[in-house]
Amino acid sequence: MIGLLLSLLRVLHPDLLLNERSLWITAITVGCSVVEPWAAIICGCVAACMLTRCNKLAEKYKYDDPLEAAQLHGGCGAWGIIFTALFAKEKYANKVYPGKPGRPYGLFMGGGWKLLGAHVVQILVIFGFVSATMGPLFFILHKLKLLRISPEDETAGMDMTRHGGFAYVYHDEDGIPMKKIEPASSS
Fold first, then answer.
1. Which of 16, 51, 117, 118 has the most CB atoms in a 10 Å sphere around its CB?
2. pLDDT attached to residue 21
């Protein structure tokens, strides 16, 4: 519901409710075994704000991700990693990882900076790995003109131009169903 409330500040996007369920899961999965339930609620609320902010950045930099996958998994996933480094409780960390006394735990729980430092390095490694592996792939797809569709297909919508029908039933003002649009030239 946090995501829905945030979307009301701009434009109502019902699909945000579906992404919100995913963002809570994405963010809390990292530390679900080592945090208190009250902290998990904080994690989800901040993750909703994080997704909204990541979406604004995607719009600003014209990053084309209609499913918000990078924003959701990258932004909210990174927040989940940082969150765990802040709120991991010593009692739970020792229970989940027995036999290792002195294991670092959350900064806000009195555990010091060690876990936060390790998690920042983890985020940098993940982003570095994804950039190093996916960057060349997207560069090649871009050069082969396989990454984007034609502007005409983009405007008309791929449901009609590539898949032969609407994903949803659409009608014009008079209640007449919209007609099929033929595909533009292959791109």
1. 51
2. 74
Residue 25: which of 69, 66, 76 has the closest Cα?
76
Q: Which residue has the tokens 């033929």?
A: 182
The pLDDT assigned to 184 comes to 57
Q: Which amino acid is at 127?
A: F
Q: What is the tally of helices (H) and strands (E) in the chain?
A: 9, 0
Is the pLDDT at 23 greater than 60? The verdict is yes
Q: Which of 174, 126, 172, 179 has the alpha carbon at shortest distance from 157?
A: 179
Q: Residue 39's Cα: distance from chain center in Å?
A: 20
Instruction: Tell me the C-alpha distance between 59 and 65, whole Å.
Output: 9
Confidence check: pLDDT of 3 > 60:
no
Q: How far apart are CA 99 and CA 80, in angstroms?
A: 25
For the beta carbon of residue 3, count every other beta carbon within 10 angstroms.
24
Question: Helix crossing, 77-87 with 37-60: angle to 10°?
Answer: 150
Distance CA 154, CA 91 (A): 53
pLDDT of residue 169: 62
Cα–Cα distance measured from residue 23 to residue 84, given in angstroms and rounded to the nearest whole number: 15
Q: Which residue has the higher pLDDT, 168 or 69?
A: 69
pTM of the entire predicted model:
0.76
Distance CA 174, CA 184 (A): 27
